[in-house]
UniProtKB/TrEMBL annotation:
Originating species: Sphingobium yanoikuyae (Sphingomonas yanoikuyae)
Domain of life: Bacteria
Pfam families: Cytochrom_C
InterPro entries referenced in this protein's UniProt entry, alphabetically: Cyt_c-like_dom, Cyt_c-like_dom_sf, Cyt_c_1A/1B
Protein name: Cytochrome c family protein
GO MF term set: electron transfer activity; heme binding
Organism lineage: Bacteria, Pseudomonadati, Pseudomonadota, Alphaproteobacteria, Sphingomonadales
PROSITE patterns per the UniProt record, alphabetical: CYTC (PS51007)
């Protein structure tokens, strides 16, 4: 492979890899914190804090249904979704469509700006 071709392949790969974080970076974290108030009834961003839903601490990069000590629906356990900005965006739009059979009763966030803001907040608030 020529160096020119290798450089093009690398640039393409980097562009693809960067699309997930771009979703989170496009939002406003301060506005996302306000959106998270809807989620905070069931979820915490603090490590180990279980509510009706699992802690979202460390959610980016985690596989669905894998927080120790939390009892997930069989559907969420089988989904095997690796959570990143793109997969979370799709899930948050309409959880019941993304993971049919999930116990999550939240209807979703149909507004793309709300999701982008929430993802920006979660990107910072859920880092371990």
């Amino acid at each position: 492979m020529s160096m020119k071709h290798f450089s093009r392949v690398m640039m393409f790969g980097l562009a693809i890899a960067a699309t997930g974080p771009a979703l989170a970076q496009a939002g406003d974290a301060a506005k996302g914190k306000a959106v998270f108030a809807r989620c905070a009834v069931c979820h915490s961003v603090d490590p180990g804090v279980k509510k009706l839903g699992p802690s979202l601490s460390g959610v980016f990069g985690r596989t669905s249904g894998t927080v120790p000590g939390f009892t997930y629906s069989p559907a969420m356990q089988k989904a095997k979704i690796r959570w990143d900005a793109k997969s979370l965006d799709g899930f948050l739009a309409k959880p019941s469509a993304a993971v049919p059979g999930s116990r999550m009763v939240f209807a979703g966030l149909p507004n793309p700006a709300d999701r982008a803001n929430l993802l920006a907040y979660l990107a910072g608030a859920t880092k371990k």
